[in-house]
Specification:
The structure is a single chain. With about 475 residues, the protein is α+β, with helices and mostly antiparallel strands. The chain has three domains: about 110 residues, Alpha-Beta Plaits, CATH 3.30.70.1050; about 100 residues, Chitinase A, domain 3, CATH 3.10.50.40; about 200 residues, Orthogonal Bundle (Trigger factor, domain 2), CATH 1.10.3120. The chain has 13 helices and eleven strands. Strands 6, 7, 8, 9 and 10 form a five-stranded antiparallel β-sheet that branches. The protein has a four-stranded antiparallel β-sheet with strand order 1-2-4-3. Strands 5-11 form a two-stranded parallel ribbon. Strand 3 and strand 4 form a beta hairpin. The longest helix has about 45 residues. About 10% of the residues are buried.
């Protein structure tokens, strides 16, 4: 195999590959030997069919298979031997090919640029740790205790009020007639939440244990029996019990009910929980700082084909006019994304960072926990969409790379209070909003400028028409 690099223009180059006739014939002979053992032709014993007969019967098909194999093997080798990493799929142009001929073709390649990642170790970023005050932990525990149901039976003469838990049996009628689903036993209502029927709770306020009460309420839009929707029903209620919530004692028993060993253990867990709530957001700020620093790293030339593909992705869902108006902005965004991606990928390759199937499954499980009740839908989505799994793999890969960059970069460690953490996150959020608004105004201003320029041009430039001569 003879390989020549031609037409070098920046990242673009042509790779000319020549495989001599003898090598191509040896590939063909090898294939004929392979099929000889499997072909059954009338008049010939298995494995004894002459090559000339095989050529007449299967020549074109055999050559097609051999050509595909040779092109794949030799093009891969040509790229690897010359240490060329293509940006996208190379274009292949066959020059000479055929049975009993040499094979010559040209690979037109856009090469990935060389990336220097040494400067990543000099990146500086802020690394925060939040010191949680004891009072913050106690406050959170009190909030948890307040929301814990702790209903106790009340004396029989106690009148129900908002917040009480009332247990009742009921039988309902519409125009004096029974209907499907009109009875309920031991139905529990926390008065004031209005979770049963709108206006029902208010009519129960003031009842006592063993009271009977007629309540009128309208059946809702989502009632299973559609012909009864919006019908007014009378509920004959028998009050079985009235319970009142008591303040929860914050002690070891309370902590054990929440899964902790004791109260001190619960405080440790809650303190960590509060810290984690801020840690994830603050870690993201640190990663954003790193990404901003990576964006400053210079790469002399970026592959135009990758920029065009990224602009197309950014323009998805837009009209042709909208895409044209935003092309300059999208091109700059595309360049930033591609440059960042190239640097991160180079770092990942040099540091042998990979994503295992276990890590992908762990990320899927994480998403399942975030969407309770929709687990099956999420699993079906990933099982039916390989591209979604590939996207997830890319996200996990980038996260691993950024974590590794963080370990090698220079961290400016800062211990801050919960209040300071809130202020930092608030300021970062405000900056993001202002940045988005500024970008929006820039695009609008540029669009208006382009409109004015086009109007001005139409007034000053003559309109030239081509007239055909007869």
């Amino acid at each position: 195999m003879k390989v020549t690099i031609e037409n070098k223009k920046g990242l673009n180059k042509d790779i000319k590959v020549l495989i001599d006739k003898e090598t191509m014939n040896s590939y063909m002979d090898e294939k004929y030997e392979e099929i000889k053992t499997t072909v059954n032709l009338k008049g010939f014993r298995p494995g004894k069919v002459p090559k000339e007969v095989l050529k007449r019967q299967f020549g074109k098909a055999v050559f097609g298979e051999v050509l595909d194999k040779v092109l794949k093997e030799t093009s891969t080798k040509a790229l690897e031997d010359n240490k060329i990493k293509p940006a996208g799929q190379p274009k292949l142009d066959l020059k000479t090919y055929g049975e009993d001929k040499e094979l010559e073709y040209v690979l037109s390649v856009t090469e990935l640029p060389k990336v220097d990642i040494k400067s990543l170790e000099n990146i500086k970023f802020d690394q925060y740790s939040v010191k949680i005050d004891k009072s913050e932990t106690d406050k959170r525990i009190k909030e948890i205790a307040k929301n814990q149901p702790n209903f106790k039976d009340t004396p029989s003469e106690t009148k129900a009020k908002k917040g009480d838990l009332v247990t009742l049996d009921y039988k309902a009628t519409i125009d004096g007639k029974d209907f499907k689903g009109n009875e309920g036993k031991n139905t529990q209502l926390t008065l004031g939440k209005d979770l049963f029927l709108k206006g029902f709770d208010d009519q129960i306020i003031g009842v006592k244990k063993d009271d009977e009460k007629i309540v009128e309420a309208t059946l809702p839009e989502n009632y299973p029996e559609k012909d009864l929707v919006n019908k007014k029903a009378k509920f004959n209620c028998k009050i079985m019990n009235v319970q009142r919530s008591e303040e929860v004692n914050i002690d070891d028993e309370f902590a054990k009910n929440l899964g902790a060993k004791d109260l001190n253990d619960l405080k440790t867990l809650i303190s960590k929980q509060i810290n984690d709530e801020y840690k994830n957001s603050l870690d993201q700020l640190s990663k954003n700082q790193i990404l901003k620093e990576i964006e400053k790293i210079k790469i002399d030339e970026l592959p135009e084909n990758l920029i065009e593909e990224e602009v197309k992705i950014l323009s998805q869902g837009m009209t042709e006019d909208e895409a044209k108006k935003n092309k300059t902005k999208f091109t700059e965004t595309a360049k930033t994304r591609i440059k960042t991606g190239l640097i991160l990928n180079e770092f990942g390759e040099q540091n042998k960072i990979n994503v295992s199937e276990q890590e992908i499954q762990a990320e899927v499980q994480k998403q399942l926990r975030m969407m309770p009740g929709q687990e099956k839908m999420v699993m079906d989505f990933y099982q039916k969409n390989p591209s979604a799994v590939a996207s997830l793999r890319g996200t996990v890969y980038e996260e691993k790379i950024l974590n590794s960059v963080k370990e090698k970069a220079k961290a400016n460690k800062k211990e801050i209070t919960k209040y300071e953490a809130e202020q930092i996150l608030k300021e970062a959020h405000s900056k993001d909003q202002n940045l988005n608004e500024t970008e929006k105004k820039k695009v609008e201003a540029k669009t208006n400028k382009e409109k004015k320029s086009s109007v001005k041009a139409s007034k000053t430039k003559p309109i030239v028409k081509k007239v055909s001569k007869k």
